[in-house]
Amino acid sequence: MTSTDAPVALVQPHVIPAPSPHTGRIRQALASLREQAEPVEVPAVPSPAATLSREQILDATEACLRQTGYDGTTIRRIAARLGCAVGTIYRYFTDKRQLLDAVTQRRFEPVAHLTSSGAAMEETAALYARIAAEEPQQYRLMFWLSSLDRPDRPGLPAIIQEILDHWTRKLRDPLLAQRAWAAVHGGVMLGLEPAQVVQQVRLALQQAAPAASASPGASAASAAPAQPEPISPDASGPQASPSAKEAALPVAVAGSSAAAVSLRSDDVTLL
To answer: What pTM does this model have?
Structure first.
């Protein structure tokens, strides 16, 4: 047998099987799987720094202040509590002092709002005393922080000054408003209960009322002092009886060279 007589392999024709009745269902299932496997666009979650607000920072600072005190409250610790970078807090506040000043004064914003709405003096004083008694250390801290910027002439915190201005407009007397606030502040510093503080305010206003009503008359008397009545030169016989109107004789009062009294038959009146 020659090489040309080698056996030739027979190629079987490719037979396409008839479609199965389940083919369509399989194709639909595969298409559904491909759709589920496609990536879905998920909206980006903003970072904590982008969502933090000023109020959230103040809330975290106040909680930290209650737990660790003034020395333990640091910008780094507040940032760790919030889960943000330290620079996020510096977007709103320049330093720890400004941050704590905002925290302590924020607590008295309800009092300022109540006073501006025209509420009764005793009601606003009671709210003031109650808020101060809840966190006495923060109340003292608020005044200390306010004095740091002006050591030579310390003033009131801005929120306390706002409350005092509302009381001044309500009472129409700045001195009376100052006496009322002094009664509230003194009661708080002494640790009195809010009801006792309100009683102190009530007494202060009652004691100041007679002085305020008498002040116009007193000022008029000081502006126009009484003039002595001259004695008639033609009085005959002995000197006129003391029972008549006597001349007002200035008499020096011990301890005051400017004071004078008017001597009369039945009383001594301070001029």
So the answer is: 0.61
